[in-house]
Amino acid sequence: MEAHAVNPWVAVLYLVAGVCFILALRGLSSPATSRKGNRYGMIGMGIAVVTTLVTHEIASLPEILAAIAIGGGIGFLIARRIKMTDMPQLVAAFHSLVGLAAVLVAVAAFLNPEAFGILGEGGNILPVSRVEMALGAAIGAITFSGSVIAFAKLNGNMSGSPIMLPGRHVINLATLGAIIVLTALFAHSGAAGPGENPLFWVLVGLAFLIGFLLIIPIGGADMPVVVSMLNSYSGWAAAAMGFTLHNTAMIITGALVGSSGAILSYIMCKAMNRSFLSVIAGGFGVESGPAGGDAKEQRPWKRGSAEDAAFLMKEAESVIIIPGYGMAVAQAQHVLREMGDQLKAHGVNVKYAIHPVAGRMPGHMNVLLAEAQVSYDEVFELEDINGEFAQADVAFIIGANDVVNPAAKTDKSSPIYGMPVFDVDKAKTIFFIKRSMGGQGYAGVDNDVFYMDQTMMLLADAKKMVEDINKALAD
Amino acid sequence: MDFVSILSIFVMACFVGYYVVWSVTPALHTPLMAVTNAISSVIVVGALVASAAAGSPAAKWLGLGAVVLASVNIFGGFAVTERMLAMYKKKDKPAPKPGSGGGTH
User: Fold this and answer.
1) Cβ atoms of residues A108 and B62 within 8 Å
2) Which ranges carry the NADP transhydrogenase beta-like domain (chain A) (predicted)?
3) Rg (Cα) of chain A, in Å, rounded?
């Protein structure tokens, strides 16, 4: 019955698993060591699972193995088939599963505390454990319902635009407050036997609700923050369950994942010059366009052709390519790499510049370029390349908009003011691939780059346009 | 283990996480999310404990359900991370190597 006080080696093995997980993240400091890191992760997971199976009396091994086989098979198939452009949805979906698993484990611990060794004297669940399982269940439930909404928004099952409920801040704060009060009541309640206290169910229900309410007002452009934040939550849920189980592997992992998601959220917010609170409050991008936007539409701009682009880039010494979410939508990464190859064959120095919030999740563009076999040493982060635009002959913008908008540097009234952006306006020539002149980035802001003397607008589907440029380059 | 030693491990691990994650190159932030997803499924340990225990059939089935969910994540998360990491290559190496990981083309 005492599940914790068994062999000390068991605790050591869980610790080893935790260390393997640290090494897994450590490996990601460079692409060269990353795959080794991933192997450490797998080894750590193997150690944790086998240790658990060996040290517990298993009433039904075949059922457990079947459950692992079913889940593992599904996971493996999805991982093989998923398109790289759909990675944000996949990650959101995976987060929701961790969240739901945490809820199920917490409920199981509530119903059968003896198995978890958290039954105190008199047949009551230990008060500390009650707090831990309530936290685990609540964070898990928030992760689950929040991730389901994030998935639906990213996958296009639901509009990416914010849904604003009246009085939502009051509703959200009240719900959060209620969850905290219920946790306290649950811990102090006299009714503390297995499955006895109905407050637990109310608490879990409210947590599902708040996860849903928290994410619906957040717009598509803020999804990188949301996905990172839910990543963090899934870690804290695992950590809370680790406290319940007194399991070091779970606690270390939870802390790692929790900090990882929190740091990514911070990086994303900083890259947009937004505060975390304003993202969580939601509503960004709900305006249909700033005042005077229509008047600006009338300013003169130049339209370029694929042939113009091919000719000018062929003659250039250096070209910097700035991909954005539009490239992912158009699946243009492969033809873009072909274009880069052709230019390099003409002796052009080609570099790719990636903004931290390009795409729908951190690092999304890097994965797509890697998929298209762009070498990672041709891909540069914002601060590393921004000084080079002044010397660049061509800035080639494909599917990005807000991240090249000079208004972020100059216009204090702009919603994206203060966001670090690429200095494309310093390049000699700018090619800007865009579907039409109508749509205006996710922040709903007009972009002065469209109207600059050195800018040529290439109005077409990104993939189609790059294919045409490739043809013109080959001629 | 008493609560304070567990809390100590947790707090230390948060610091380790902080420094390790800051050292991750931004180019690998997507694989970072995928792999953290996979490892946070270590929650499967709790699911196994629940599903292994005799006593409450409801808890057992919930545990088995959680094992399925966590397994999707473990296998899916590590496999998709592996697939992504295999795509990150440096130039000057003959890029197309058959069997070196499955990018969709």
Assistant:
1) yes
2) 11-471
3) 26
Question: What six digits make up the tokens of A291?
Answer: 């005042």
Q: A303-335 b/e with 16+ CB inside 10 Å = b?
A: ebbbebbbebbbebebbbbbbbbbbbbbbbbbb
3-state SS class at A223: helix
Residue from the list A115, A239, A370 with its beta carbon closest to the beta carbon of B53: A115
A181-222: pLDDT as tens digits: 999 999 888 777 888 888 999 999 999 999 999 999 888 778
Out of B30, B78, B86, closest to residue A42 by CB: B78
ipTM above threshold 0.85: yes
Three-class SS of residue A172? Answer: helix
Answer whether residue B79 is part of any domain: yes
Count Cβ neighbours within 10 Å for each residue of A225-251 and write b for 16 or more, e otherwise.
bbbbbbbbbbbbbbbbbbbbbbbbbbb
Counting the structural domains of chain B, the total is: 1
- Verify whether the Cβ–Cβ distance A38 to B70 is below 8 Å: no
Distance (Å) of CA A281 to CA A149, A167, A219, A420: 16, 12, 11, 22
In 3D space, the residue among A261, A175, A182 whose CA is nearest the CA of residue A226 turns out to be A261
Contacts of A70 in chain B (CB under 8 A): 68, 71
User: Phi and psi (nearest 5°) for A428?
Assistant: -65, -45
Instruction: Give the residue-averaged pLDDT of A327-342.
Output: 94
**Above 50 in pLDDT, residue A289?**
no
pLDDT by residue (tens digit) across A70-94?
A: 999 999 999 999 999 999 999 999 9
Q: Residue A418: left (phi > 0), alpha (psi -120 to 50), or beta?
A: left
Residue A396 to residues A60, A310, A351, A362, Cα–Cα distance (Å): 60, 11, 10, 22
Q: Region of A84 please: left (phi>0), alpha (psi -120 to 50) or beta.
A: alpha
Question: Which entry of A86, A308, A402, A475 is annotated as an active-site residue?
Answer: A402
Q: Where are the domains of chain A?
A: 1-81, 84-281, 302-474
B55 located within any domain: yes
Q: Is A461 a catalytic site residue?
A: no
User: Given the structure tokens 């959101």, which residue do they identify?
Assistant: A92
| Topology of the domain covering A302-474 | Rossmann fold (3.40.50)
Nearest residue of chain B to residue A19 (CA atoms): B13
The whole-angstrom separation of Cα B63 and Cα A204 is 17
Which sign, positive or negative, has the C-alpha torsion B95, B96, B100, B102?
A: positive
CA angle A8, A10, A16 (to 5 degrees): 110
The structure's pTM equals: 0.88
> Nearest CA to A88 among A378, A368, A334, A352?
A368
Q: Which domain range does residue B35 map to?
A: 27-88
* SS3 state at A425: helix
